[in-house]
Amino acid sequence: MREIIFDTETTGFDPASGDRLVEIGCIELINRVPTGNTFHAYYNPQRSMPAAAEAVHGLSDAFLSDKPLFAEGIDELLAFLGDCPLVAHNARFDFGFLNHELTLCGRVEVSMDRMIDTVAIARTMHPGAKHSLDALCTRYGIDRSHRIKHGALLDAELLAQLYIELTGGRQIGLTLGSEREDQDRREETAYLAAVRPVRPARPHAATAEELERHAAFLATLDKPLWLDGLAPG
User: Fold this and answer.
1) Rounded to whole angstroms, how far apart are CA atoms 7 and 129?
2) Is the pTM value of this prediction over 0.85?
């Protein structure tokens, strides 16, 4: 199963008010395993970068001035995305900007049916906890020490690790779990055999004296139920 983890950086929060997508980073997974195939691009937004947005991702007007327009690299991006599920953190934000750019280019929007939102998954698994990418990386022990500022490809790489953890960790599927459990049982059996001495079975048959005492005890009972049907008739 092929899935694409992606993240975007933008000039702001609302494409309807003129904000634009300036960076996209994508990571390919096959059966929840990163393949090493990635897509990464910067785009000239054809507008100035607000100071608040630049403080988040560090992408300045000067840096983006010589980058291609989104329309110029659209075919390469769509070819990489294909028709597989697309995974993002707070996915409606990223889908909103991606589809806005596609609409500006006269292209068909990406179907929301393809959207997998890791924030929604995290809320189900950890209700009441913090669900930011930083907080979830801390929860799952994912190293983000190199994340000084937001970056689409870097954040997509972190999100790929998080998505794998949220959907079963490095051990995916019942088959692997069953094999691991079988191996654990075999190791436990071998360990117990090594540390516990083998003792002969203890005798458990009643002696003649014990049988005689038992018969005498039964003789004192008044028509015990378990003897019904055994008396001669």
Assistant:
1) 22
2) no
pLDDT at position 175 is: 45
Q: Is beta strand 21-30 parallel, antiparallel or unpaired with respect to 33-42?
A: antiparallel
Residues designated catalytic = 150
Whole-angstrom Cα Rg for the chain: 33
CB 41, CB 156: distance < 8 Å: no
Arithmetic mean of pLDDT over the chain:
86
Q: What pLDDT, on a 0 to 100 scale, did the predictor assign at position 233?
A: 45
User: Exposure of 124 by Cβ count < 10 A (0-12 exposed, 13-18 middle, 19+ buried)?
Assistant: exposed
CA distance 167 to 6: 17
Alpha-carbon distance of 163 to 115, in angstroms, equals 13
Token readout for 188 is 């436990």
Q: Residue 168's pLDDT is what?
A: 87
Higher-scoring residue by pLDDT: 88, 150: 88
